[in-house]
Amino acid sequence: MVAETAREFEALEAQAQTLMATFASAGHEPVAPAALQPADVYLDVIGEALRARCYVFTDPDGDEYCLRPDLTVPICRLHLERHADGAQKAKYCYNGSAFRFQPRGANAAHPREFRQCGIESIGSSDRELNDANTLAIMLEALKAAGLNDWTLRIGDLGLFRALLSAIDMPERWRERLRHQLWRPQAFREELVRLTELPAAQSSAMPEELMQALDPEDVEGAQRHVAQYLDQNHVELIGVRTLEEISRNLARIAADQRAERLPVATANLIEGYIGVNAPARAAGARVKDLMRDTGVDISPALESYHKRLQLLADLGVDVTRAEFSAEFGRSLEYYTGFVFEVSVPDLGKRSPVAGGGRYDGLMKLCGAPADVPAVGGAIHTERLLKAVRG
Amino acid sequence: MTERLQLAIPSKGRLMEQSIEVLGEGGVTVRKTGNERGYRGEIEGIDNVEVLFVSASEVAWYLKTGKAHLGITGTDLIHERMTDWETRVEIIKPLGFGHADVVVAVPDCWLDVRKVAHLDELAGSFRNAHGRWFRVATKYVNLARQFFVGHGFNDYRIVESLGATEGTPAAGTADLIVDITTTGTTLRANALRVLDDGIILKSQANLIASNAADWTPRIREAQNEINSRLGV
After folding, report:
1. Residues of A numbered 252-281 whose beta carbons fall under 8 angstroms of chain B's beta carbons: which are they?
2. Residues A14, A120: one domain?
3. Are strands B192-203 and B100-107 parallel, antiparallel or unpaired?
4. Does residue A119 share a domain with residue A109?
5. Do A176 and B121 touch (CB under 8 A)?
6. Residues B110 and B94 in one domain
7. Which chain B residues are within 8 Å of A248, Cβ to Cβ?
8. Which of A30, A151, A255, B87 has its CA 20 to 30 A from that of B132?
9. Domain span at residue B153?
């Protein structure tokens, strides 16, 4: 069943035709983006989880390329080639090979080379409707291919982002938490760090110097730092300027003097992360958490409920969906709704399909501004295995 | 292939001398065969052993592919060349020489960077100021990646560097380095400092057995003889 051995070529081809027919009839234009992608652009935007699993190589001219580990970024780049500003509305579908290094060795469920079949919907700002449509079309395609028994996991990074924005804290801390959003472990550590005494944070930095620094007075900070380097015979090397180093040191010094993040607030964030519940009940659970905290994320919650309702209207059985607040944090480009379809036989570690909203990816690929976009992909070898039982 | 145990040892410099010395102290005396400049040798008193003199990094490759049954090389190269080294080789005996640390070092003037976490915090503003991610110069591409992933630091690009790595930050071709150091003198001379949590690996030379090699009973016998002489 592994594509690289091409043993199941005919069965996979037939299945792909069924999937692509469903996508095309839903208005998605079939496209075939390049398998070979320039490494620079690609590696910068995909995030670490995929980057470490990318086949990267240097061609005879010395230029770095990679074999695409998924098809979403290639589709974004294809869209940008057609429409330079990226904001043009478009719906694409595709079926093609993707390549991933498997650190624990390749096997049938985790092949190095596999075929993804999926859809992307770019440029439409009616987010909830497009989220719901995307998932509904994916499920329809799976059904057409013969898959009826599935479980659905959903998440919503929009809720998480709304929560971080609504909580009262210095902007610098918010940036740090957002930055760590993709690394659950580092995020927790950061959260603990923000509630702890400042002394624990940067004890190794020269104390006397730190005390002399004032973030409002960059020139003064620069003088202090220059003097310190001079006295300690430390040479200024590298591309970072004295100003950059001084500015950042002064910011750290300001952090040390700032109030700590209240433990109750850290607990609220932890509480949110811990929410796992059936999709409909999850909204209420989140609302309960926010009660009496003064934190208001009702627009994000309304959007969550609206999407669920739209899914139900499109005939998706939302009672089969589980919400997980943690879910979606492993793929760095997702910004909102995320989903994953699994089958009992293959287990949750090998989902047959998944996808989500990635409003920031087009800009990372070169568009002048963010472009709303959502998509989903089917792991076709796994699907074939699932429908055969 | 002949039924001879293939023992790969470093072909140059201190590593070769010390390998031969340590083996000799245990009664495993290596002798070059043929030309003094040749790359083959044998062991006194164990006739079905062939000694291969190859570069230290090639020893790792010989062990990985099974071209050699036994080999002497550093922990750093074993970890770097084999993502799943535990399944591919077995460390028979640490040999007590070739001590060195694989470390992350930054310009000493970066007073605001003491730990890996500080690099991560800084990555965004560095990119805004310089239009690119941090560049990390190293020949330990895999070790560096694994280490940084474990520390949640992701916003960097690796620049492969096969020599004079310590000079790259001052030259501006890289911002920080992952490299091997014994005394730290070279790092200091290049105005670099090891991060407080920047020790990736403490390395030394080891006698290592390959799991991929063809271990016939006769070859296994030769290994037992070597092991017993070395007191393993």
Report:
1. 252
2. yes
3. antiparallel
4. yes
5. yes
6. no
7. 112, 122, 125
8. A255
9. 100-203
What six digits make up the tokens of A376?
A: 């989903």
Measured in angstroms, the CA of A174 and the nearest CA of chain B are apart by 12
Q: In this structure, is residue A69 part of a structural domain?
A: yes
Torsion angle, alpha carbons of B121, B125, B128, B129, to 10 = -130
Q: Is B47 helix (H, G, I), strand (E, B) or coil?
A: strand
Measure in Å the smallest separation between the Cα of A132 and chain B Cα atoms: 32
Provide mean pLDDT across the span A212-239. 93
- Nearest residue on chain B to A64, alpha-carbon basis: B159
Q: Which of A52, A237, A249 lies closest to B149 in CB terms? A: A52
Query: Interface pTM (ipTM) of the complex?
Result: 0.85
Give average pLDDT by consecutive 10-residue segment, chain B, 232 residues: 87 92 94 83 93 93 96 95 90 95 97 92 86 91 89 85 92 96 94 96 96 95 94 88
Mean pLDDT of chain A: 89
Distance (Å, whole) CA B196 – CA B115: 6
- Are the C-beta atoms of B178 and B157 separated by less than 8 Å? no
- What is the domain count for chain B? 2
Same domain, yes or no: B19 and B82: yes
Contact (CB<8Å) B107/A183: no
Residue A352 lies in a domain: no
Total number of domains in chain A: 3
A interface test, pick of B116, B154, B177 with most A CB neighbours within 10 Å: B154
Does residue A105 sit in the same domain as residue A32? yes
Enclosing H/E stretch for B171: helix B168-171
The answer on A282 and A215 residing in a single domain is no
* Separation in Å, CA of B190 to nearest CA in chain A: 9
The reply to whether the predicted model has a pTM over 0.90 is: no
Q: Number of A:B CB contacts under 8 A?
A: 79
User: Two tokens at B135?
Assistant: 């560049």
CA gap B173, A134 in Å, rounded: 45
Burial track A177-193 (b if 16+ CB lie within 10 A, e otherwise): bebbbbbeebbeebbeb
- Is the pLDDT reported for residue A80 higher than 90? yes
Substitution target from A230, A248, A255 for chain B, most B beta carbons within 10 A: A248
pLDDT above 60 for A382: yes
Same domain assignment for residues A250 and A270: no
- Residue A76's domain spans which residues? 3-150+370-388
CATH assignment at residue B225: 3.40.190.10
